[in-house]
Amino acid sequence: MKMIILTIMLLFTTTAVFANRLGIEGPFKAAGDFYRQGDYKNAIQEYESILSRDSESGAVYYNLANSYFKDGQLGKAILNYERAKRLIPRDGDLGANYKFVLSQVRNYSSDLEPAWKVWLKQLIQSVTEGEYIIALMILYLLTGLVHLSRFFVAGSRKNIMLLCAGLSCVLLILTAAFVYKINDDNKTAIILKDTDARFEPRENATAHFKLSEGTPVAIQEKEGAWVKISRFDGKLGWVESQAIENIAR
Q1: What is the chain's alpha carbon radius of gyration, rounded to the nearest angstrom?
Q2: Cβ proximity of 221 and 115 under 8 Å
Q3: Nearest-10 Cα torsion for 15, 134, 51, 219
Q4: Does residue 54 sit in helix, strand or coil?
Q5: How far does CA 162 lie from the centroid of its chain?
Q6: What is the pLDDT of residues 39-91, one digit of tens each?
Q7: For the segment 133-183, what is each residue's pLDDT rounded down to a tens digit?
Q8: Which parts of the chain are beta strand (E)?
Q9: Which helix (H) or strand (E) holds 150?
Q10: Listing from the earlier edge strand, what are the strands of the sheet with 244-246?
Q11: Which fold has domain 2-102?
Q12: How far is CA 64 from CA 28, 60, 77, 144, 145, in A?
């Protein structure tokens, strides 16, 4: 089963449409050819060149993550799987590969978080930013129209007010979920190499705990060339900025 999960699909149909739309057929085809030939470093270079043009695509991030994993760069692989999840969060192949690759990170476990919290976070993250914006715009419009209808529909003001209250509650919940998603994306980062988290933001400070390559962490604050992070178990520490990268580009 694991071998099936690790059989990386390059999403030929959807990614070809993406490539044609942006006029990047050459680099995209070259990257796919390099990948199939086992030349993962050149595949990485081609995919990175596509993304450097501000051409964000979940499919490109996904293929780039696969290439990094095959090249043995676990941190970069998880970083780009995370970026792909922001754009294609409900993709089955992405979810399976991400789960397997994350299981390869040493000394990492998400089991310490309550099940309800993990489920709620997954639910919120299963919707893209664009989908949230569209849904919020529709709800704002509907709520406004229902409010206006009070002045034109006679004899049903109570029902209209109940409907307004219901729409307002949904709008509030959806807005809170959207804000949480934005904040979570901006705070989440990946450790790119094995490193020590220290008690203070200086090189000779005492090491507090170790972080393995590929570990997801949350950024708390920055000070010069140091970043204060929180680990999955809530522990806080300072790491050098070169050892970490935010999933938000």
Answers
A1: 22
A2: no
A3: -130
A4: coil
A5: 37
A6: 999 999 999 999 988 678 899 999 999 999 999 999 999 999 999 999 999 99
A7: 999 999 999 988 888 887 777 667 778 888 888 999 999 999 999 999 999
A8: 188-191, 195-198, 207-211, 216-223, 226-230, 236-240, 244-246
A9: none
A10: 207-211, 195-198, 236-240, 226-230, 216-223, 188-191, 244-246
A11: 1.25.40
A12: 11, 6, 7, 44, 45
Q: Which CATH fold topology does 187-246 show?
A: SH3 type barrels. (2.30.30)
Q: Indicate yes or no: pTM above 0.70.
A: yes
Separation between Cα atoms, residue 238 and residue 226, nearest integer Å: 6
Q: Which two tokens stand for residue 237?
A: 């520490």
Other Cβ atoms within 10 Å of 36 Cβ, number? 11
- Record the tokens describing residue 138, joined without a space: 């529709």
Q: Which amino acid is located at 42 in the chain? A: N
CA pair distance 108, 130, nearest whole angstrom: 31
The token duo for 60 is 């490109």
Q: For residue 205, what is the DSSP state?
A: S
